[in-house]
Structures are given as structure tokens and as C-alpha cells.
Design goal:
It is built from seven helices and six strands; from the N terminus they run βαβαβαβαβαβαα. It is an alpha/beta fold. The protein has two domains: 120 residues, 3-Layer(aba) Sandwich (Rossmann fold); 51 residues, Dihydrodipicolinate Reductase, domain 2 (2-Layer Sandwich), CATH 3.30.360.10. It has a six-stranded parallel β-sheet, sandwiched between helices. Helix 4 runs parallel beside helix 5. The longest helix is centred in the last third of the chain and has 17 residues. It is elongated.
């Protein structure tokens, strides 16, 4: 049984992650967080998500939500993710991070921290999109810098960051292919 805590659980991604993980037989959700003073603090995440009580109240403290967790899942915001990664590093917790909007300095700190704990970090968790990242890098290698790369994207009205982490990662992959800094 893998024990998981979900950061930012009352948000759009947090709820989706909850539904996916709660359906798994070999996963136990042991904790959930939201930002301080969020209206759902103290409420059971199962009730908040419409699946029925599971005995896990939402808290604002990672220490409370993750003390029994094996893995912390974080699709929140850069400052929160870095704080949570510091906790994971200090407490030997694994992390799955899908947060976007991290600066170069944030990514460097995350890379340093992740040397101390198992960590999966990607701006997009889709297998197809990750294949596209690698294909973009390879295409850029083949075409060279004689070609211009332009990334155009469109999103739903609730999208928080623009450009998206996926679009930025595509730009990074193309730059890697022609051995330039992004």
C-alpha cells in the first residue's frame, strides 16, 4: 500500500488527482492540504470531492498531512512546491511534482533538493506529451538553427499560467536540440 498526501487538494488538479488516486486499490490517501484560511480546511477530502467521507481532513500544514505519507503529490504553486520539497528532502518523502511557473532559480533549487529524495517533476504528466518533448528536441537537432521555432497554444478560461509549463518545456526541448540556452 502506497500512502499518499495531496497538496492543494481542493483545486481543479488537486480534486482530479484525488479522484484518480482514491480509485486505486494499492493507494491510501493519508493527508491533504490547502492554503491557510481556505474555506475547506478541516473538512474531509472525501466529502469535499463528493465521494463520501474517508477520514482525512484537509489541513494547511504539510507536517500534519504528510507525516505518514510515502509520497507527496504537488500540483500547486511555485513557492508552495519549493516549501513542500524542502519538507520532503528533510523527511525522506518521495514527491510527484506537476507545478508549473517555476523560475530557473526555483528549478535549480528543486534539483538540488531532489538529490536528497525520490522526485518526479514534469510540467506535463502525459506520456504522449513527454514523447513530444523528446521528438521536439530530436527534430531541432536534425533541422538545426536555420529554422525558427514558434509555439502557439490555447487554453480554457481557468488556466492560471501562460505560457503553460508544457509550452515552455517544448521551447526548452527545441533549444536543447540546437544546443542553445532557452
Amino acid at each position: 500500500m502506497i500512502k499518499v498526501s495531496i497538496m492543494g487538494v481542493a483545486g481543479r488538479m488537486g480534486r482530479s488527482i484525488f479522484h484518480l488516486l482514491n480509485a486505486e486499490n494499492d493507494v491510501q490517501i493519508v493527508g491533504a492540504t490547502e492554503i491557510e484560511n481556505h474555506s475547506e480546511i478541516g473538512n474531509d477530502i472525501g466529502l469535499v470531492s463528493g465521494e463520501g467521507e474517508i477520514g482525512v481532513p484537509i489541513t494547511s500544514r504539510i507536517e500534519d498531512a504528510s507525516s505518514d505519507a510515502d509520497v507527496i503529490v504537488d500540483f500547486t504553486a511555485p513557492s508552495s512546491t519549493l516549501s513542500n520539497a524542502r519538507y520532503a528532502s528533510s523527511n525522506g518523502k518521495a514527491m510527484v511534482i506537476g507545478t508549473t511557473g517555476l523560475t530557473t532559480d526555483d528549478k535549480n533549487e528543486l534539483q538540488e533538493l531532489s538529490a536528497g529524495f525520490p522526485c518526479v517533476f514534469s510540467p506535463n504528466m502525459s506520456i504522449g506529451v513527454n514523447v513530444m518533448f523528446e521528438a521536439t528536441k530530436r527534430l531541432a537537432e536534425i533541422l538545426g538553427d536555420d529554422f525558427d521555432v514558434e509555439i502557439i497554444e490555447a487554453h480554457h478560461k481557468h488556466k492560471v499560467d501562460a505560457p503553460s509549463g508544457t509550452a515552455l518545456r517544448l521551447g526548452e526541448a527545441a533549444a536543447e536540440g540546437i544546443k542553445q540556452r532557452f
